[in-house]
């Protein structure tokens, strides 16, 4: 309220007799326990929210009372809360600008035409500023929806809700059961040329049904839909309906249901498509079902189901919190805090009416801004990777809308706005201090820098116990993890074929000896020499067989701890020669083989200040280590499947490799020496931290941006 009730300009408007236009409706709403009045403009489709104090004035505008009489009548009704004359003039001006009232004064036709032309220019400018989401109205679907309004009654009722829940639950169980098949080689399947064409066909159909979900939800609770058209989202045509009439619903729950109807419909489509995919044979139908699941399931969660973007879930959240215009008011709340506490503008008022509302506005504004940056960059990079020139234009436009334009408005406010005339010195000081503070934080203060990597305990070659002979494992003499002594038997295998070969070779030698003696007795020297050579070969063969037989019993070569590298119960399993049986671990120095991605390898190679490791079984202890070696070139094969995403690691596996664990992108392997470490299980996960020279955050951000451009655009 102004300091004075009276205004020097009141005489100019005191005799005006305003009245609401015929196309205006007023609805009473409750937001966070407070009464508000929402004015619905059927002509423009806009909605305006006013306080009870403002409604006390608006409700008296019937064209019979002049503004002075309206003000006095409202004063009698409101008492100490009566508005000042300046506030009444401001309200009247606001109502006139949005075409909610008309007066007995002859309207200025030129001014009205200019306002309409300005509205058209604003809409065109909005299309230019947001080329990724251009709307083109086409038809009025209300007559069709009225003829089919009966559909809404059986679409939105408790029984249908139970069917919906059952279908979604069943589809989720099927997705979990067939998860490997659904996600196997996903990237190649989705981005294949023929599959992209199927997505282009399926996407608009799914979204058309989605929009009819909104439309019939509106009809179910008495709303109207007068606009339907096409929105080009990232250059893909997508149907849309104007469901803004739900704002007139008094209860928030019908409003939430209208906003969530599209998500619910798409989830049901995904469930039906999952059933088709499960029970159909490979072919076109199954491919269409798979893409429908992908579109109606995944894209719904990322976009329509994400309240940080101004799609369906945003309106559900705003109605649930009972905070209309959550996004725009959140931005105004941030601006208010900056003006009030940084620039000292004591007259500024918060757009929030309670502390709880203020917290929600601030949190939402910050989180949604960060997410919009992320999603915008992702879209721009995707488009630029396919259409470079268009992607660059989109990047420039996005940078202008998200950073350059707001920064220009801030500068304009600080140095041009009349409210800052008396505080130019403070605004300049705040600008310098904030800019300097941000610059120091980003580019002057070194922050600890490190590379975190996963690795596994890597046994030396000398500790590996390999099978010396083919055979079937008969008995494990010691269990894994047992301390053993040199010469102690570890396991026993059998090989019946080897036994037969030994008997056959021994018999052959005996037979050859008889033939040899006979040849010598008969003075057949040539024959005796040939038989003697055969005897020598047979004895060598017998010696090799005996060596293999002795190798069927594996003895410990030294003192240590035996660790089995085979399955827990390998009894009766056939073990070929050269198979890794286990390890003989001895206290002393052990190595860790760590895996580092392409983005971090330069820092590990060129700026290494220290290395520490933590064992997964005891994360509280940090162990000093040192880098002792590196595999010379990049490779894709991982030392262990435990380092893949499926095993809880960092690297996605290449689905094309089925025989061994290979990362999707090349990786680099480093060997780390760990001293004075108790004997641990070979293959156990280890967390490695490479320490680097501290560096300001700004240089890291620059390097990450440059790396991303090189990777995505080769630019």
TrEMBL record:
- Membrane topology according to the record: Multi-pass membrane protein
Location within or outside the cell: Endomembrane system
* One GO cellular component term: endomembrane system
What is the required cofactor set for this protein?
A: Zn(2+)
GO molecular function list: metalloendopeptidase activity
Pfam families for the chain: Peptidase_M50
Query: Any idea which UniProt keywords this protein has?
Result: Coiled coil, Hydrolase, Membrane, Metalloprotease, Protease, Transmembrane, Transmembrane helix
Q: Does the keyword Protease apply?
A: yes
The name under which this protein is listed is Peptide zinc metalloprotease protein
Task: Give residue ranges for domain Peptidase M50.
Answer: 205-364
Q: Which PANTHER family match?
A: MEMBRANE-BOUND TRANSCRIPTION FACTOR SITE-2 PROTEASE (PTHR13325:SF3), PROTEASE M50 MEMBRANE-BOUND TRANSCRIPTION FACTOR SITE 2 PROTEASE (PTHR13325)
What GO biological process terms does the UniProt entry carry, in alphabetical order? membrane protein intracellular domain proteolysis
């Amino acid at each position: 309220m102004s300091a004075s009730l009276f205004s020097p300009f009141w005489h100019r408007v005191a005799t005006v007799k305003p009245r609401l236009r015929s196309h205006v409706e007023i609805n009473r709403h409750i937001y966070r326990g407070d009464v508000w009045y929402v004015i619905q403009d059927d002509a423009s489709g806009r909605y305006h929210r006013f306080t009870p104090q403002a409604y006390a004035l608006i409700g008296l505008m019937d064209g019979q009372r002049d503004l002075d009489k309206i003000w006095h009548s409202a004063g009698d009704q409101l008492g100490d809360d009566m508005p000042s004359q300046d506030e009444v003039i401001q309200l009247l001006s606001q109502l006139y600008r949005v075409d909610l009232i008309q007066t007995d004064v002859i309207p200025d036709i030129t001014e009205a035409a200019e306002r309409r032309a300005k509205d058209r220019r604003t809409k065109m400018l909005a299309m230019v500023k947001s080329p990724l989401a251009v709307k083109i109205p086409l038809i009025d679907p209300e007559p069709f929806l009225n003829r089919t309004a009966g559909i809404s009654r059986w679409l939105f009722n408790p029984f249908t809700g139970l069917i919906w829940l059952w279908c979604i639950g069943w589809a989720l169980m099927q997705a979990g059961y067939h998860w490997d098949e659904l996600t196997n080689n996903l990237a190649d399947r989705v981005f294949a040329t023929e599959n992209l064409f199927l997505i282009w066909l399926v996407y608009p159909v799914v979204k058309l049904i989605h929009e009819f979900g909104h439309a019939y939800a509106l009809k179910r609770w008495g709303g109207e839909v007068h606009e339907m058209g096409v929105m080009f989202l990232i250059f893909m045509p997508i149907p849309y309906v104007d469901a803004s009439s739900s704002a007139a619903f008094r209860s928030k729950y019908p409003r939430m249901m209208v906003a969530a109807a599209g998500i619910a419909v798409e989830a049901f489509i995904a469930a039906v498509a999952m059933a088709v995919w499960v029970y159909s044979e490979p072919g076109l139908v199954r491919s269409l079902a798979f893409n429908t699941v992908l579109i109606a399931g995944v894209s719904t969660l990322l976009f329509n189901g994400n309240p940080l973007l101004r799609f369906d879930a945003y309106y559900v959240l705003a109605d649930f919190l009972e905070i209309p215009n959550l996004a725009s008011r959140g931005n105004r709340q941030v601006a208010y805090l900056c003006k009030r506490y940084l620039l000292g503008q004591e007259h500024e008022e918060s757009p929030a009416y309670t502390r709880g509302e203020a917290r929600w506005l601030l949190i939402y504004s910050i989180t949604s801004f960060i997410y919009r940056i992320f999603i915008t960059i992702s879209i721009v990079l995707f488009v630029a990777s396919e259409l470079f020139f268009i992607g660059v234009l989109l990047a420039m436009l996005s940078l202008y809308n998200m950073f350059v334009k707001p920064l220009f408005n801030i500068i304009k406010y600080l140095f041009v706005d009349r409210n800052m005339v008396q505080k130019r010195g403070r605004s300049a000081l705040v600008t310098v201090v904030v800019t300097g503070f941000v610059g120091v934080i980003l580019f002057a203060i070194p922050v600890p820098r490190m590379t975190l990597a996963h690795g596994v305990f890597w046994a030396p070659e000398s500790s590996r116990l390999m099978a010396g002979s083919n055979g079937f494992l008969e008995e494990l003499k010691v269990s894994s993890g047992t301390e053993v002594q040199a010469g102690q038997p570890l396991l026993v295998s059998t090989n019946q074929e080897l036994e037969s070969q030994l008997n056959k070779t021994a018999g052959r030698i005996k037979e050859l000896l008889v033939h040899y003696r006979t040849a010598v007795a008969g003075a057949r020297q040539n024959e005796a020499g040939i038989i003697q050579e055969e005897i020598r070969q047979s004895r060598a063969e017998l010696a090799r067989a005996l060596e293999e037989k002795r190798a069927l019993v594996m003895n410990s070569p030294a003192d240590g701890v035996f660790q089995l590298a085979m399955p827990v119960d390998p009894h009766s399993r056939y073990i070929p020669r050269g198979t890794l049986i286990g390890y003989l671990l001895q206290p002393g120095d052990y190595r860790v083989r760590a895996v580092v991605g392409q983005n971090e390898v330069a820092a590990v190679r060129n700026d290494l200040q220290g290395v520490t490791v933590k064992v997964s079984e005891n994360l509280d202890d940090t162990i000093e280590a040192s880098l002792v070696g590196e595999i010379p070139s990049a490779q894709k094969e991982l030392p262990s499947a435990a380092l893949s995403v499926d095993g809880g690691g960092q690297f996605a596996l290449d689905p094309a490799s089925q025989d061994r664990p290979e990362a999707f992108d090349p990786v680099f392997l480093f060997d780390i020496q760990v001293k004075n470490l108790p004997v641990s299980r070979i293959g156990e996960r280890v967390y490695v931290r490479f320490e680097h020279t501290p560096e300001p955050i700004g240089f890291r951000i620059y390097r990450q941006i440059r790396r991303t451009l090189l990777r995505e655009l080769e630019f």
